[in-house]
Amino acid sequence: MENSIKHTYHIDGMSCGGCAATVKNKLSAAPGVTSVSVDLAKKEAEITSSIIIKADTLQDALKNTHYTIAELKES
Question: What kind of fold does domain 5-71 have according to CATH?
Fold first, then answer.
């Protein structure tokens, strides 16, 4: 049985398609991440993972870039 966890995050610092592609590639390489969808207009990334991933781990995946990530709070 495969469990997948989806979370949406705000990504700060993206301004173009190249930024979105870089963020997607970097986050896709994080341990446990199975897919990443980036919405440049909303400055959001939806990350699907097989395990619970801390925001610190995702921020670490974006190290050496000027992008920052923060989990969106559910309303």
Answer: Alpha-Beta Plaits (3.30.70)
